[in-house]
Amino acid sequence: MTSVAGGTSRRLAAFTVPSEPGNERMALAQVASAVAGTGLSADQMDRLKTAVAEATMNAIEHGNDNRPEIPVDVEVLQTGTDIIVTISDQGGDQAPSGPAQEPDLLAKLAGAQTPRGWGLFLIRHMVDAMDVTSQGSRHTVRLVMRADAGADQGGSHDQQM
Fold first, then answer.
1. Predicted TM-score (pTM) of this structure
2. More confident residue, 106 or 131
3. Which helix (H) or strand (E) holds 127?
4. What residues does 139 pair with on adjacent strands?
5. DSSP-assigned letters across all residues of 48-82
6. pLDDT tens digit string along 88-130?
7. Which domains does the chain have, with CATH numbers?
8. Whole-angstrom Cα distance, residue 92 to residue 65?
9. Within a 13 Å sphere around the CA of 42, how many CA atoms are in the beta-carbon half?
10. Nearest to 61 by CA among 48, 50, 70, 74
11. Which of 21, 119, 20, 141 has its CA nearest to residue 70?
């Protein structure tokens, strides 16, 4: 498990979006606004926005079954140089459909894998660390982007928290 930089966390934003397709754009815009001026490079900001949008789409579609009355909760924290975004839905008590399969483009093109299934793979490669947890019905994706990682370095992307 990767630790987050020590220090006190400062909440930059906390909000909800209704579980309706398209609201991932609202979430990414609010996160981008909240983290402006925190030291993220333009590349890091773009990657964080992509990860937030994808995680929010997953929460809307898979976690909350596109039910607008069930909100997706988003929280943005800063701890030292770490930007931490959590995206939570109410799909944690759903049985997984099987072990996660690493997407393989050639297998997908050949029909050996479903064309879907890129979400967590993409998210994991957009941020410096990612953690997925479930507690009861609450399912949470936690994203970490390190402002000091540098735009050309981009972090390890494969670290699990």
1. 0.79
2. 131
3. none
4. 89, 134
5. HHHHHHHHHHHIIIIISTT-TTSEEEEEEEEETTE
6. 999 876 555 555 567 665 665 676 656 556 678 889 999 999 9
7. 11-94+119-149 (3.30.565.10)
8. 12
9. 0
10. 70
11. 20
